[in-house]
Write a structure and sequence with these properties.
This protein is α/β, with parallel strands linked by helices. Helices cover 45% and strands 16% of the residues. Helix 13 links the parallel strand 12 (351-356) and strand 13. Bound molecules: guanosine-5'-diphosphate.
């Protein structure tokens, strides 16, 4: 099988707009032959057959090259390299966005010698031709998939190269140290003084600090990108579906007063100050013999197991029931309910206790609840009156973000891949510092420095393997 990474001389084509019906659909063609591929399909009203000026929209018909049939009325733009998305010659045909029209235009382009682009291949070419580095290319996908404005801002900053700039700074510092060491090793006879640990350590420490700063924001960054899995758990009829609706401010889950109606789990995304909150409404964890409900119960256990945070809902207007206690036992057995005092949600998986139906007289034994969940935040809510919903959001945001927000200038590491590579770089720098302090030979020290340098290069793509590139770009959509 041909590898997209080594096979970059073909001219490629794809429908760049999403499948389905739209006002406009775009076919994108890129490669050295792209102009020659599309031009024979273009009929301009004034009968001209020459190439229109670069980067200028031209009104034309697209014809079927075999039958001469007019396939669509389009606007076509020929874009001369290098000022294009891929840095190759690119043509974009803007036609009417019907699936059949798009497919027929694409087929016409393919009959002229272009081949179908693979997922992400346009962006891969932009990367291989040096227009984007790898972190920027990944930001393209993050930007397309952004679920909140904060996530979008972070992706834009990464796409603009702000993350890459900070990484390159650290990388250059490391390279500087490597160069000093290698000059003294390679040219001992040139009287180059051997660099001393007192000279090298501060340089390495600066680079390590830069990496640590990026790592410190990585959990938060990942949160903005991936969101927080928040399971709404509790016995039937305490108001879980109603709470979901209040948090979403819509009517997504069906609310009824018959216990056990939420048989399946419902998942929706709410925006918690920029963090996509994946809210999972579960069928109450309860002993049931109804087979459909049992599936729901099973799913709610799974939802709880996967969750980063649990909203544990009780009906404040009733005394605690055996079922309530069983739900508590189940959650505690899963390790929920550590201290909520920091934002290290990924390790301790906090529980927020929601005492719902606060509009009714309070009958629940709060003391018993406090004893069951001594480290959890408590919020009283009424989904009927809206009381406590804002406080619940505030509490969640405190737990998750600990007061941090994203501005349009924030640069945060948002990807697990970047975080892993940065951690490795930092480890190697730490090891090189230890080696220097122990008086190890400099060529030994430089092994760790090289490894750190390479790990940083994996983020921006300088040292990324073909396999890694294949994996990253295959996650893109076709036409991107
Ligand atoms: P679930 O089974 O836990 O998802 O509970 P639902 O959301 O379906 O609610 C069960 C019943 O409680 C419905 O009749 C709701 O209208 C009612 N309910 C939900 N929240 C409140 C509330 O805050 N106050 C009062 N009084 N009733 C509520």
């Amino acid at each position: 099988m041909q590898n997209a990474i080594t096979n970059t001389t073909d001219t490629i084509a794809a429908i760049a707009t999403p499948p389905g019906v739209g006002g406009v659909g775009v076919i994108r063609v890129s490669g050295t032959e792209s102009f020659r591929t599309v031009l024979p399909l273009v009929r301009r009203p004034e009968g001209r057959a020459d190439l229109p000026p670069s980067h200028q929209l031209t009104y034309a018909h697209i014809i079927d090259p075999e039958t001469g049939e007019v396939l669509d009325d389009v606007l076509v733009v020929f874009m001369r390299a290098p000022h294009t998305y891929t840095r190759e010659d690119v043509v974009e045909v803007q036609g009417h966005g019907g699936p059949l029209v798009m497919r027929r235009i694409l087929r016409a382009v393919l009959t002229q010698g272009a081949r179908m682009a693979k997922p992400g291949e346009f962006t891969l070419r932009a990367f291989l031709n040096g227009r984007l580095d790898l972190a920027q290319a990944e930001a393209v996908m993050d930007l397309i998939g952004a679920q909140t404005e904060a996530g979008q801002r972070l992706a834009v900053q990464q796409l603009r190269g702000r993350l890459s700039e900070q990484l390159q700074e650290a990388r250059h510092s490391v390279l500087d140290v490597i160069a000093r060491i290698e000059v003294s090793i390679d040219f001992p006879e040139e009287d180059v003084p051997t660099p001393q640990p007192e000279e090298l350590c501060p340089l390495i420490s600066v680079a390590q600090c830069q990496i640590e700063v990026l790592l410190a924001g990585a959990e938060q960054g990942r949160l903005y990108r991936q969101g927080l899995r928040t399971a709404i758990i509790g016995r039937p009829n305490v108001g879980k579906s109603s709470l979901l609706n209040s948090l979403l401010r819509t009517e997504r889950a069906i609310v009824t007063s018959v216990a056990g109606t939420t048989r399946d789990t419902v998942e929706e995304i709410a925006n918690l100050r920029g963090v996509p909150l994946h809210l999972i409404d579960t069928a109450g964890i309860t002993a049931t013999t109804d087979p459909i409900e049992q599936i729901g119960v099973q799913r709610s256990r799974i939802a709880a197991e996967d969750a980063d945070v649990v909203l544990l809902v009780f009906d404040g207007s009733e005394r605690l029931t055996e079922q309530d206690r069983r739900v508590c036992d189940e959650l505690q057995a899963m390790g929920f309910g550590g201290s909520n005092s920091s934002n290290s949600y990924s390790r301790i998986r906090p529980v927020v206790v929601v005492v719902n139906k606060a509009d009714c007289p309070l009958h629940i034994e709060l003391d018993a609840l406090y004893r069951l969940w001594p480290s959890s935040a408590f919020v009283k809510t009424s989904t009927l009156t809206g009381v406590g919903i804002a406080e619940l959001e505030e509490t969640l945001s405190e737990i998750v973000l600990a007061g941090k927000t994203v501005s349009s200038e924030s640069v945060l590491v948002t990807s697990a891949r970047h975080q892993e590579a940065l951690s490795r770089a930092s480890e190697h720098l730490r090891a090189s510092l230890t080696s220097l302090e122990q008086g190890q030979p400099l060529d030994f020290v430089s092994i760790d420095l090289r490894a750190a340098y390479d790990a940083l290069g994996e983020v921006t793509g300088e040292t990324a393997s073909d396999d890694l590139l294949d994996t990253i770009f295959s996650e893109f959509c076709i036409g991107k």
